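User: quick one
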Amino acid sequence: MSSVDAQIVALHAQIASCETQLQRLRDQLFEAESHRDISSGAATGQTPLSLVNVAPSSHPTETSEGFSHQEKGQKVAKIWPLDKHEYRRYGRQLIMSEIGLTGQLRLRSSAVLVVGVGGLGCPAAAYLAGAGVGTIGLIDGDTVEESNLHRQILHSTERVDMAKVDSAIASLKSLNPTVKYVPYHKRLTAEIALDIFDQYDVILDCTDTPASRYLISDSCVLLEKPLVSASALRTEGQLMVLNNPPLPAGNAQGGPCYRCVFPKPPPAASVVSCGDGGILGPVVGTMGVLQALETIKIITKGIQRSSEPPSLLLFSAFSNPPFRSIRLRTRKAKCSACSAQATVTREALESGSLDYVQFCGAVSPIDALAATERVSVVEYSRLYNSSDAAMNTQPSIKEHILVDVREKVQFELGNLEGSINIPYSAICRSSATASTDPLSQPPSEDGWVAQLRNLAEDRPIYVVCRLGNDSQLAVGKMKELGLDGGGTRWIGDIRDGLRAWRKRIDPDFPEY
Amino acid sequence: MSAASSEDVIPITVEFSGGLEMLFSNQRKLDFSIAAKDESGLNSNVAFLVRYLCDNVMKDPRKDLFVLDDTVRPGILVLINDADWELEGEDKYEIQKGDNILFVSTLHGG
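Assistant: Done. Structure below.
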């Protein structure tokens, strides 16, 4: 070895030694500075952590607590706990005592799963990405539809028909490219739930069916994950933080789960979807934003540290006051998921023996009428068009009566000429006993019944609705009320409703 | 016995939310008085209130969307003065003057 070579080796060794020393000094400096920061922020109740070693790439499920100096020998010198861009990007929340450096590091090292990328999931994921959550998983098996866009803010007109998960990630990446996004292009099922949930720290229930809500809650209990659950319909929303703190089943100090609050699912007939009931964008958006907020609170405070009593937040956009917080029960002593006597076990869930769909029941398609009481849109269109032609200028239907039983607001969106609107809600309220009881009949017979009696005499009544369900029930009710004159007048419905009319007869009929 | 006096009735507020108002003629909030004693002369409790609402206030014939097996159906939370009724004794809770009782149907949309 030449003297030059020896010199090179010696210099290498010297540099390495200096670098190690330098790294140690930097570590000590961070330590000292973070202690100073924490003592000055002690009033926030944050616990001192070893902040230095929360690496940006740390595994999603690792929390910052419990780490010590195992990375000390690392070659890469990091002067500041956050990257330069992170100070800038998160500066407005970093300077708040509720977040601070500790909170930001906890956000960065956390992984959050958003189940359902719709009206709740979109705003929730957007704010979580914006806040710098390290990893965001997104599960949804659906594709974007035009009717989603008024509320599902991560999707766009150009991305109609794209998988919701991909559409959302495209938006989120442009919002914050430094977050790791994990797509799951499928509907959540019991077979996959535990494997996926296991990789995350907090789960957000942004789904829209009771079956998925029970599955998500059970999985969170089994894996000891806090659950931020929200829902919305029409002008109202509800929010609960469940299983928080996420203590093992049987520990009464843990937060209640979905089954503690709702041990039995609601009857399937009482469950109304946004598609049927309607939803206002900012209402569901508000709830999704609140989910992101609760998630940020859980993460920055430190998972397992919740001391807030369980509550349900009710939002009613057209009430005053619009927000109301309700105190909820604690864990139920006999809860089938989170008590010591739980029957919802990992084995039961994974084997598929817990049939969530069956547990919650399905609404079987209504089949209330005989074939002779129903006509297809094609059959009806012949009748409709012939009477239309006969009437020429008069848009009334002389030979028969067409009753549209959709709610007034839907009727006004578009209806068949000559049809009469009698909303199903009014029909189902009418009592059959009232009209057969001679004493109570005169004052109690509803306006619509009298209207049909006077109008009709023996002309047949065709009943139509949006999809062909309410129309069947309305026919049944009309017969119960004696409008068929004991069989002298035909009353029946138009199968599959106005949806079929648009598909097969008139493509210009409005779709909503 | 004298005619009913204010001693015999309890003024309360009942509210409906989460779509239940549709079963009650779209009324979200009702202020009314309920008998202080139930059919058997016992202090009126929430179970009695639920029966009273079903028989006297609810015009919608779809009773099963509110009551099932003699109690409020699954999926409805009953909140007594902003607390889950399970914290207050459920349907055994005896109604007090000025109580606010809220019936909330759980929502599922998202």
